[in-house]
Design a protein that fits this description.
This protein has 418 residues and is mainly β. The protein has a domain of 95 residues: Beta Barrel (OB fold (Dihydrolipoamide Acetyltransferase, E2P)). Helix content is 10%, strand content 28%. Strands 7-10-11-12-13-14-17-18-19 form a 9-stranded mixed β-barrel. Strands 1-2-3-5-4 form a 5-stranded mixed beta barrel. It is globular, with a radius of gyration of 22 Å. The termini are close together.
């Protein structure tokens, strides 16, 4: 697909539920600049955000420790970053923007090392090669089912301004067609970044997180959303807990793993807390399903399309960014299609919940053979460790939402361009 066509699809699609994957951007004041120089104290290379700690000498000779937020360890590794660059005691210079509330805290935009080399926040040191040679795998299992075994990840998303200060968040292939800091025609800058209305708002955090639901809510759905604050630990992903099988599949473009045979398909997410089993040898859901975040899934192949029907969810959050809850009546139907020529695994989904919202919540995404192997997910959210939210990070395991005037599909817009 041509870059022009890709950009037109981005412009046509709505701003999606996953677009705030980089939670907490509004916590930083993008109207200001900050520069610090000092020695590396330590690096915490963790998901969903890494943190660099720097000892900065003051005019009186005393040292003050600064901490600067970086991207997730997983996506940094995908970009060729290494923990070995951050040797304790080595000199660094960091430019970025300051935190709105926490002293001596910054958002890392660009780092310059003692040898003069530098990296932008979204810089790519090298392009990793897919770890699984998917093109050489058998096209089908012994029973004839399409072979979707392997590790899969979405294309990385970067800011068009690679320092992450301004511009739009788009796939790398799209960003490469745009000027630094540009916004695709018909698109918008990332909420909270420099020059956006959210950055200029009196309460930037609320402005960045408060968005109307993408579908009309029922009265029960509105009541369920009352008081929910997506920028707080009300939001499960800010407590290192799973959100749902739709959002978490593409979260931060972490690597997911599919293990398949003729009876079951196991889907292990790279985001914490979701390990699914799709039962190919069942045609009906059990009557006594134990409600869970992952639900109970049965699947079937229809002309090489895997159709997965999932029910049995415990009440939770469908879209934190738009304060859409879901009840135990949520039903999700996914359709997975493998394009072997491009080695692209496309997922389209439809979610319904007559108890909490009206209409169909639709979307889709695309993943490719991963350039970093799947690993057991971990999470240590240090972004909320000092007064913003949850104190205890965990390993794997708001104003009321406004009602939309009419139903609108919820699309993961960065996934529709290829």
């Amino acid at each position: 697909m041509s870059p022009l066509r890709a950009l037109s699809l981005i412009a046509a699609a709505s701003f999606a539920t996953n677009a705030s994957a980089h939670h907490g951007i509004a916590n930083f004041d993008f109207n200001k600049d900050v520069t610090i120089s000092g020695s590396v104290a330590k690096l915490t290379f963790v998901n969903p955000h890494s943190w660099l700690y720097v000892n900065v000498a003051g005019p009186n000779g005393e040292s003050t420790e600064w901490r600067c937020e970086m991207r997730a360890a997983t996506v940094l590794r995908r970009s060729g970053w290494s923990e070995e660059w951050f040797t304790a005691g080595s000199q660094v210079n960091v430019t970025g923007v300051p935190d709105r509330n926490e002293p001596n805290t910054c958002y890392l935009g660009t780092i310059t090392f003692a040898d003069g080399t530098s990296m932008d926040r979204y810089g790519q040191r090298q392009k990793a090669e897919p770890t699984a040679v998917a093109a050489n795998r058998p096209e089908r299992l012994a029973n004839g089912d399409p072979n979707i075994n392997g590790d899969w990840a979405g294309e990385q998303r970067v800011m068009t301004d690679r320092s992450g200060i301004s511009g739009a968040l788009v796939p790398i292939s799209v960003a490469d067609t745009l000027e630094p800091g540009a916004v695709p025609e018909g698109g918008r800058a990332f909420p909270g970044s420099r020059g956006t209305p959210e950055a200029a708002a009196d309460d930037a955090i609320r402005a960045a997180w408060s968005r109307p639901s993408s579908l009309p809510l029922t009265e029960a759905g509105r009541r369920a959303a009352e008081g929910f604050d997506p920028s707080s630990p009300d939001n499960p992903r800010l407590r290192c807990e799973p959100t749902n099988i739709l959002f978490d599949w593409g979260f931060e473009t972490f690597t997911n793993r599919i293990t398949q045979d003729e009876n079951v398909i196991r889907i292990q997410y790279g985001a914490p807390g979701i390990d699914r089993t799709v039962h190919l040898n069942e045609t009906e859901h059990p009557a006594n399903v134990e409600p869970s975040v992952a639900g109970h899934s049965i699947g079937r192949w229809e002309n090489d399309v895997l159709v997965v029907d999932t029910v049995g969810f415990k009440p939770g959050i469908l879209s934190a960014d738009t304060s859409m809850m879901h009840s135990d009546q949520l039903r999700i139907v996914e359709r997975f299609t493998l394009d072997r020529e491009r080695m692209a695994l496309r997922r389209e989904y439809v979610a319904t919940d007559p108890t909490y919202f009206v209409g169909e919540y639709r979307g889709g995404d695309v993943v490719y053979p991963a350039d970093l192997p799947w690993e057991p997910p971990t999470c240590n959210d240090l972004s909320y460790a000092t007064g913003r939210g949850t104190l205890a990070a965990q390993p794997s395991a708001a104003a009321p939402a406004a009602e939309a005037p009419e139903a609108a599909p919820a699309k993961s817009w960065w996934m529709f361009w290829k």
